[in-house]
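Lecture notes, continued. The same structure-token format from the folding unit now serves as the input rather than the output. Read the line below as a description of shape only.
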């Protein structure tokens, strides 16, 4: 290969990598897992009261204001990652940045442990599961390379390991807003761009329908069994 060609090739290969900022500084390595394990929920409770998290997230991490965001019962690992991402400005929000900018990792882990220990918002019993939503949630759409939401967010929307958040019981407005934020790359803290890719394959109607489903629906165990392939 001629030298100048290999220079051009090298530029083409490496430019995007050099420019791309990592989407999060959080890795679920041994140090982070130890930090989360040694977190103190009672210290998190005291800090939450001091920081007035309840003002925007409800008294027990659940708010009946449709514009608020429920954080109770999500995994400590997901909650911790979000708090660090706000602090690192990997996830951009002025209110949340102000809340966490002076916190140490231990304090964010304590907060995460506290909110993880609380009960998530109850499901709405009047939920509807259309065929189109069922397909997206449980089977995905191979033609669009869409994986089933349940494969990462759990079969009951209860969340998965590490950075896979619970969706069930979340306020509807926030579910729509966050999918649109990923779609428009206003939110970029998802490692490997997983949610940015997925949300870009979804139509507006699908986003609305998925938000209806998760905000209002939590299948009982029997129905869940029937969904098994
Ligand atoms: C002034 C209002 C306000 C206060 C006070 C506040 N938050 Fe938030 N919080 C928000 C908003 C708004 C968002 C969503 C921002 C966005 O779209 O990224 C959010 C998002 C979050 C998220 C991400 C939720 C998710 O599902 O990804 C977590 C976790 C969180 N807040 C925890 C806390 C904790 C812990 C405290 C107290 C230390 C706190 N917040 C205080 C307004 C607030
Ligand atoms: C390959 C795994 C994967 C699949 C499949 C997936 N998600 Fe996600 N999703 C994630 C991850 C990881 C995050 C959290 C990113 C972060 O902030 O670190 C997330 C975040 C979200 C959020 C924001 C939650 C919050 O509290 O902020 C919504 C809403 C969401 N996903 C909806 C969906 C829907 C609907 C589907 C199916 C169409 C889906 N996801 C499929 C991995 C996945």
């Amino acid at each position: 290969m001629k030298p100048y060609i290999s220079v051009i090739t090298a530029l083409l290969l490496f430019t995007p990598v050099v420019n791309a900022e990592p989407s999060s500084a959080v890795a679920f390595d041994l140090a982070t897992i130890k930090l989360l394990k040694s977190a103190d929920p009672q210290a998190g409770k005291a800090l939450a009261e001091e920081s007035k998290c309840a003002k925007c997230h409800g008294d027990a991490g659940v708010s009946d204001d449709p514009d608020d965001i429920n954080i109770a019962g999500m995994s400590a690992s997901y909650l911790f990652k979000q708090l660090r991402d706000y602090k690192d400005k990997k996830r951009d929000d002025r209110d949340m940045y102000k809340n966490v900018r002076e916190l140490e990792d231990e304090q964010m882990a304590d907060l995460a442990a506290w909110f993880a220990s609380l009960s998530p918002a109850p499901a709405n019993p009047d939920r509807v599961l259309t065929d189109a939503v069922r397909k997206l949630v449980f089977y995905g759409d191979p033609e669009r390379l869409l994986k089933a939401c349940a494969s990462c967010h759990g079969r009951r929307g209860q969340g998965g390991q590490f950075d896979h958040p619970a969706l069930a019981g979340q306020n509807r407005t926030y579910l729509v807003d966050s999918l649109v934020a990923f779609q428009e790359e206003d939110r970029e803290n998802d490692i490997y761009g997983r949610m940015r890719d997925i949300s870009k394959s979804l139509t507006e109607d699908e986003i609305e329908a998925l938000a209806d489903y998760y905000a209002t629906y939590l299948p009982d165990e029997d129905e869940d069994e029937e969904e098994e392939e």
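Point for the exam: Residues 48, 51-53, 55-57, 69, 71, 79, 82-83, 91, 93, 95-96, 99, 111, 165 surround heme C (ligand 1) (CB under 6 Å).
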